[in-house]
Amino acid sequence: MQSIESVNEFVIKFANVNGTGSASANNMFAKALFRMGLPVCPKNIFPSNIQGMPTWSEVRVSEKGYLGRRGGVDIVLSVNPQSMPKDIQEVEPGGYFIYDNTKPLDLRLIRNDVNIIGIPLTGICNQQYSDPRQRQLFKNVIYVGALAALLDIDFAALTGLVGDQFKGKEKLIKPNIHALELGHQYARENFDCPISIRVERRDLVADSILMDGNTATALGCIYGGATFAAWYPITPSTSVVEAFDTYCRRLRIDPGSGRKNYAIVQAEDELAALGMVIGASWNGARSFTATSGPGLSLMQEFLGLAYFAEVPTVLVDVQRAGPSTGMPTRTQQSDILSAAYCSHGDTKQVLLFPSTPKECFDMAAQAFDLAERLQTPVIMLSDLDLGMNDNMSAPLSWDDGRRYDRGKVLSQSELEALERYGRYDDVDMDAICYRTIPGTHPNKGAFVTRGTSRDEFAAYTEVGEAYERNMLRLMAKWQTAKGYVPEPEFTPADRPTEHGVIFFGTSEASSLEALDYLAEEGIYMDAMRVRAFPFNDDVEAFIDQHAFTFVIEQNRDAQLRTLLMAEFEFGPDKLKSVLCFDGTPISARNIRKQILQQLPGSNVTPIRRETAGLGKGESA
Fold first, then answer.
1. Are 357 and 395 contacting, i.e. CB atoms less than 8 angstroms apart?
2. How far is CA 235 from CA 208, 273, 318, in A?
3. pTM to 2 decimals?
4. Is a pLDDT exceeding 50 seen at residue 96?
5. Using CA atoms, how far apart are residues 351 and 339, in angstroms rounded to an integer?
6. What distance in Å separates the CA atoms of residue 92 and residue 72, rounded to the nearest whole number?
7. How far is CA 190 from CA 56, 149, 193, 561, in A?
């Protein structure tokens, strides 16, 4: 058997039981490699129950700097007998299957094209610990120590992490380091270390950070000036408001009086949460809520109100697999259409598509400026993969000289100078009218905020012409918005090409890697990452200048493709779908395969949309 030989380029998958503390150990493994200067991409694949079901963690190490899922697994470390039959089948030929051999491996599972390494993790724990919980927790730490020997990981990086993790709890440091030593010693005494897949220290991460998108989003809201959040807990967005609360306790306390300069309300449901946010925003506070797909469905009525009444509103949607409850702990990009046209009637909502924790921070802060400048809801569409996983990212930064864009807000003196104030009077002819904050003037600037039809002075009317003028102005404001939202990013091919690809959000890293694979095969494609909706003219021009363009997204119904066709009236033959909707992040191999299947002259029958992306890894 020819073993895989690789230095700093591999994928390892941990197969554990949910609720056993394995996530901390697996994160320690990834962070140790990061401290060795290696780009890493950790992904947790976990069930929605609290304890007992299989859970997986995938860590990709890439000296080349690839930060998305590759597809395929080179090493599997399995301590869950329930999932072992599946786990061993995922190993690439020549790879390694490492398992707890306290009980013998079922002979029916053995593969002759895979290196099998058994470590008696349970046996070691039974000898060392008498407490059942300690046996469970330290088993995970022991296998990290064994991997350090097998892969030649700098042991000092691991012990340093333990010291940092348990700072202030010094009595926990020594037993955790001892557990690492147990695994490390066993591996060195029983196997030829390192194996053919190993790591070497590099200096490839510069000033990059490892951070989850939800924490970055919360910090973006802080720096963006938010002082009020209302929410109803829902996976995977809950940690956005939890992190916001944590940071508010440090950064939103008046230093003189000690009073809180913020408010957070857990509402009775998602609709009530958004109603509170709209009320606070109408009253002048920068406010937001965070939710996921089911919450977005419930918020439609109030999003229509905020759009029609033109109240600045910020919503963070951390997408998950739907519809209905769906798979609440699996990722998708499946709220695109429901967010873009959220609410009944003719509505269009501004969307932002971050792809990294830094963009979560930047776009969360920018969302408040956009909402107040455009006087409309702004929805930032993150997803579970970005929100809940640690992602390698450029560091967060903030310009202390930056000033918030509050938009067109009349002051007391400006109101005093007006003969008559019209809340929906387009005096500047840019479709954005002037708003007032309650209490600005003792007797000027007041108006009735309503969800019913009104004229330019906010007076109720059912005159069709007045309603039509208002709706046309809102559509004109949509055109104005194109000049404010983030522009798309372009990655031109090394050679002229008739083919393009479009992607957004967390599909970016795997898409760029897939383009490198295709270029190695002599297939070149221009790339564009969409970062916001409304789409500006550059998006239309990119599609128009290519014979056809692949649209890469993580949902079943090709929602971004549908949105592009609806907005620009392109025919279906102009845009081809590359889809993944199994709840795991899309992989580079998956993208490459689907593109090859649809290229002209391909010997593979093109896949139909209903079957696209069903597979994972190399077979996808």
1. no
2. 27, 16, 8
3. 0.95
4. yes
5. 8
6. 7
7. 26, 11, 9, 54
